[in-house]
Amino acid sequence: MTGVVAEVRQSGVAIIEELIESAIIDELAATLDVQLDRQEPGGGDFFGQRKRSVSAIFARGPEFSEHLLLNECLLEVADGILLPSFPMAVNAFAGDRAEPAFDDLFQKHDPLVGPNCHHYRLNATVAMQVCRGGSNQPLHRDEWRYLPYVHRDPMGPEFTVAFMVALTDFTENNGATRYVPGSNRWPEDRKPREEEVVQAVMKKGSVAVWLGSVYHGLGINHTDVPRTGIIFSHGVDYMTQEENQFMAVPPDIAFKLPKRAQQLLGYRSSGALNYIEGVDGNHVLTVQETRI
Ligand SMILES: O=C(O)CCC(=O)C(=O)O
């Protein structure tokens, strides 16, 4: 995945073609479609009143963690972009390791080389379905929520990375996501122009990877068949999670997931962060075990 990491760091976006098997995509889609099919298109002006969505994705069955959250290719990409002290891909994961040495916590690092954070955690999740109509969504950066309060260096390290798993084909005609490649390196005040936009056309099972710093937005669906994808993003552990994962995936569900999924949700200590005093730093969830 080093080629994908390099492309994403440069352009802000890349597509991994047909990463997830079609049968798995159909299984995940069947669960979500039950919820999506009940909804009327809406979502307010930002979504052009034509989206249906389901969030809290990793509470909807362990198969979502198995096939998406713990997908090794996607973890390698997240490790390569967010450069944590503790990588999550299986060949790098250290398991139930001891707390880092106290002195190490205060070492200054070059975040472009890494480490750029202790861990990264799941930031937000949504199954996004685009129905006919509406207009192009305003182009935006996912990290806009943080930007009023943090300094963003266009050539500096990344705070978030997102994955869009295509549950249907994404075409120019059905609302494939619109991106502005390279806008991750732009200064704050530069705004995108229409001719700089490209659409992420991809087959079902493919995954678009993009940085929180790249401009993007929903396209228009000109067909009667909805376009559906699952978005999930990761963020550095020193910034709060966009979607409250402790409410979205409550302890009784998280407890049954693999340890790496628990870590990504935020249920385990992040070395210096996210601890409960007196409880083993790698077993924050054990507090919950006794309370369930
Ligand atoms: O679903 C998409 O194509 C992109 C969605 C998006 O950018 C958003 O929800 O803010």
Characteristic terms for this protein:
binds 2-oxoglutaric acid, globular, Jelly Rolls, 292 residues, 9 strands, 24% helix
CATH superfamily: q2cbj1_9rhob like domain
Mean pLDDT: 90
Radius of gyration computed on alpha carbons: 19 Å
Total count of strands:
9
CATH T-level fold name: Jelly Rolls
Task: Describe the SSE topology.
Blueprint: H1 2-11, E1 13-16, H2 22-36, E2 51-55, H3 62-69, H4 72-82, H5 102-105, E3 120-130, E4 160-166, E5 178-179, E6 198-199, E7 207-211, E8 216-217, E9 227-236, H6 245-248, H7 251-254, H8 259-265, H9 285-291
Antiparallel strand pairs: 1-7, 2-3, 3-9, 4-7, 4-9, 5-6, 5-8
Helix pairs in contact: 1-4
Give a concise summary.
With about 290 residues, the chain is an alpha+beta fold. About 25% of the residues lie in helices and about 15% in strands. The longest helix is centred in the first third of the chain and has 15 residues, at about 20-35.
What does this structure look like?
- The protein is of the alpha+beta class and 292 residues long.
- The chain has a single domain, classed as Jelly Rolls, CATH 2.60.120.
- It has 9 helices and 9 strands.
- It has helices spanning 2-11, 22-36, 62-69, 72-82, 102-105, 245-248, 251-254, 259-265, 285-291, and strands spanning 13-16, 51-55, 120-130, 160-166, 178-179, 198-199, 207-211, 216-217, 227-236.
- The strands form 2 sheets. It has a 6-stranded antiparallel beta sheet. The protein has a 3-stranded antiparallel beta sheet with strand order 6-5-8, with no helix packed on it.
- Helix 1 crosses helix 4.
- It is globular and about 55 Å long.
- The termini are far apart.
- The structure holds 2-oxoglutaric acid.
- 2-oxoglutaric acid binds at residues 128, 177, 216-218, 229.
